[in-house]
Amino acid sequence: MKKYFWIGLLVMLSAVAVACGGGPAGGPGAAATEAPAAESPATEDSGEVQLAPELSVYNWADYIDEQVLADYEERYGVRIIYDTFASNEDLLTKLQAGASGYDVIFPSDYMVVQMIELGLLAEIDVDSMPNFANINEAFKNPPYDPGNAHCTPYQWGMTGISYRRGNPAFADSPPDSWAYLFDPAVMEKYTAEGINVLNDQRELMAAALFYLGYSPNSTDRAELEAARDLILQAKPSWKTFNSEDYYSTLMESDEIVLSHAWSGDAAQAFWNTYDEAEGTGNWLFSVPKEGAVRFADNACIPANSKRQETARHFINYLMEPEVAAAITNFTFYPSPNEAAKEFIDPEILNNPGIYPPPEVAAKLEWLVDVGDAIFIYDEMWTAIKGQ
Ligand code: N2P
């Protein structure tokens, strides 16, 4: 049954690829700062590490198999306090507020750069993590964190458009352009049925910038203002800004018919609405021809964490092959963990909506740190959310 889905997607993505141009592809050494009261006796698997009784983990919504957390708690006797955030900017705000109490966080690529510059991340010492060897070489030593000094790669994915199968507006062609999110003449066919955009400033600005033919990392005020204006003229056509539970509360429940979406969330909506009789799910995913974002999210430790040794121990656990595979099998986001591959469902590995084929990958671009232009982005976002 799953085979049917990905063959369908393959056909669709090929059609998109044909139709477009597209943009360039784009331990032991660290000071242990645990308070003595935070320690507990080392357990059998924990080596010399004195594990804290609790660990506070702050992740994206629906981005882990909770069994993975339960297994860690059971194996090591560490209670995990788990909470979720909606965007990199929300995570940054929490950290900058000071006493967040978080021990493990999952910022994306460009946000890792911002956080390093602000001194918000601890050094991680991958040499002390035996499971770092499981990470695919292509994901090691990324430009946003040279030498993996602060983070290890967790999962990656792409940002595109998810749409309701069977809606007449998408019968002739899948939404193969950001026009489906920004052109009122295109949207008028389905606006009344509901459109959602990600509540994420870099992602939404990137979509608008791609549509306008600019870099998703533009630092040019005039281009950023044009993106803001495009968003503001489209905004009345949108029903919601949601990047947390949109796939469950809006997509699967048919509150909307189209959403700006992260690839794994769209795949979850597909499988959660899978109809055996029809041999397909209700939600499909498309990568717009103008280009789209590729992201990598990372496990990192806040500089003010009081349980850094335990955090490193947990991050090493996340890189165990079976653990990384369990996470991907649950979230439908690709894993950078090479050794995990043999435990990942082959239908996920072969799904072009999850692991993009080369012609789709060629259209994907990373978001990078935009330096001081972030203040222009903030200004644009305030205008977008305020009106
Ligand atoms: C999962 C969120 C995906 C992370 N709900 C996007 N960087």
List the defining traits of the structure above.
single chain; 387 residues; alpha/beta; D-Maltodextrin-Binding Protein, domain 2; seven-stranded mixed sheet; three-stranded parallel sheet; 15 helices; 10 strands; globular; disordered N terminus; binds pentane-1,5-diamine
What class would the helix/strand composition place it in? alpha/beta
Ligands present: pentane-1,5-diamine
Number of strands: 10
First-to-last CA distance: 45 Å
Number of helices: 15
CATH superfamily of the largest domain: Periplasmic binding protein-like II
Helix and strand string, N-terminal first?
Answer: HEHEHEHEHHEHHEHEHEEHHHHEH
Average residue-wise pLDDT? 89
The description of the largest β-sheet is: 7 strands, mixed
Radius of gyration, taken over Cα atoms and rounded to an integer in Å: 21 Å
Q: Can you tell me the overall shape? A: globular
The tally of structural domains comes to 2
Name of the top-level CATH class of the largest domain? Alpha Beta
In brief:
The protein has helices at residues 2-18, 66-76, 88-96, 109-117, 179-182, 184-187, 201-212, 221-234, 246-251, 263-272, 308-318, 321-331, 346-349, 358-361, 374-386, and strands spanning 54-60, 79-85, 104-105, 151-164, 195-197, 240-241, 258-262, 283-286, 292-300, 364-366. By secondary structure, it is an alpha/beta fold. It has two domains: 3-16 and 158-294 and 364-386, Periplasmic binding protein-like II (D-Maltodextrin-Binding Protein, domain 2, 3-Layer(aba) Sandwich); 30-156 and 295-346, Periplasmic binding protein-like II (D-Maltodextrin-Binding Protein, domain 2, 3-Layer(aba) Sandwich), CATH 3.40.190.
